[in-house]
Amino acid sequence: MSYNNKRSAIFLPILLTLAIVVGMFINSLFQGNSKGESTIFQLPKAGSKLEVVLDMVESDYVDTVSSADLVEQAIPALLKDLDPHTVYIPAKDLQRVNEDLKGNFGGIGVQFIRYQDTVAIVRVIPGGPSELAGIKAGDRMVTVNDTSIVGKDLKDNDIIGRLKGPKGTPVKVGVYRRSSNETLEMELLRGSIPVPSVDVAYMINNEVGYIKVSRFAATTYFEFSEGLERLESEGVKKLIVDLRGNTGGYLSEATNMINEFLSENKMMVYTEGKSQPRTDYKSNGSGRFQDLPVIVLIDEVSASASEIFAGAIQDNDRGKIVGRRSFGKGLVQEQRRLPDGSALRLTVARYYTPTGRCIQKPYNNGKEEYYNDLNLRFIHGEFEKKDSIHFNDSLKFTTPGGNTVYGGGGIMPDVFIPVDTSGYSNYFRDLRRKGIIYQYAFSFVDKYREQMQGLKTHKDVLNFVKDKAIVKNLVAYADKKGVKPDSKGLRQSRKVIETQLKAYIARDLIDDIGFYPIIRELDKTLIEAETHF
């Protein structure tokens, strides 16, 4: 074989392979779409790159895919590197997410507990559909829309989902009443059920009033005003506003509340963003409690609108802040509806307290580290010692009264109170983890319901239970539930266990107005705050 023939024999397979590959590539250029147009060299005349990619996938991808599903997955990915509070809310979740802030929802008006594989009614909302139908506390709900809910592995949210619905829509329930040993079938029309955001307003003593605000919803200022008026009628001379555990809500509700305590033209908060010009929120002088001494309680969970309230009181030297450093959320979101019923909560500005400090904690190291911040604070000892908290001097501000305050990561209280873990034992933790204390409280009320019907105050409840050996009976109840007796743990935690048990019994019977005055005995932050007026 000649050299040329040998070279042909070697290179011919390679040339054939290259020809096939090039042919495949050229063929791909001219296959185009159904109209014979090239899909590689021709770009759409309008639309974003994301729209182009979605269109290509939907029309030409090898398998059938849902472009709607792709969009649902793409939007969170698009937002993931923005701040932690810019979030996408799918249409299916929007109603549930908004309910706490709306101040009401469509339902039948009951509170329940999963008790011994049944749905036991703890409380019936006054004026709601269930009360009008004759449902009573202690009744067991056995069916919803002809489907049994007894003994099933249903979560609370599953049951709530069956009972909730648009106002005016019907729902059938079957209720077993032990006192008459009968099951009552009834059809209810769902009503507008209030979701209170002010848990309680009561007088601690002859001078000090206490208001617990759990969130800033659409009805919070109205509820807060009602509470203040009630305390005023009872002779309040000093006020404690408890915002511990309050993660925020509507800015307008916070500023309306702040306005009650400030004289005219005092800065409450201001906001500013790239496309949002500075907006000042100042008091108008119409507040009815401008001279009432105020203390605000906060903790590491207090955020957003809670921090606006606390910051305005602190920066105007209007009252003392007591507790632990707040969360550190200084960003303002607007909720914008999208065409399919979903929504985008978009951060549009930062808010600043009256002295000009932004209390937003850093988020440049990612969302995971941002939300892990509270764990790091705990590990570093911040919940136990004030000295473990350090602020940058560049973030120092001064109030009109000469007090030093800091920005850059939450509101630092004027009076620091460490977290209280006294009385905690492994035995108590096991009881709490399994919900034993709350379950036994319900069983106690269930047993003595008829005898306790006339009790109206927490003092009435305390007087009733004092000779009932509730702790001894709780220990026996817990033993049957798998938490073995622990005499050492019980001695260490007896006060905590007994006080919580009494408070839960009072709550089941007469709501939060019974719970808070009793649980106060364990609340060292509240007790300490009363001494700082």
Automatic annotation (TrEMBL):
Biological-process GO terms, alphabetical: proteolysis; signal transduction
Domain of life from the UniProt record: Bacteria
GO cellular component annotations of the record: outer membrane-bounded periplasmic space
GO molecular function, one term: serine-type peptidase activity
Domain PDZ: 94-164
Keywords from the UniProt entry: Hydrolase, Membrane, Protease, Serine protease, Transmembrane, Transmembrane helix
Pfam family, one: Peptidase_S41
Keyword Kinase attached: no
Similarity section: Belongs to the peptidase S41A family.
Cross-referenced PANTHER family: CARBOXY-TERMINAL PROCESSING PROTEASE CTPA, TAIL-SPECIFIC PROTEASE
Designated name of the protein: Peptidase S41
Organism: Marinifilum breve
Lineage: Bacteria, Pseudomonadati, Bacteroidota, Bacteroidia, Marinilabiliales
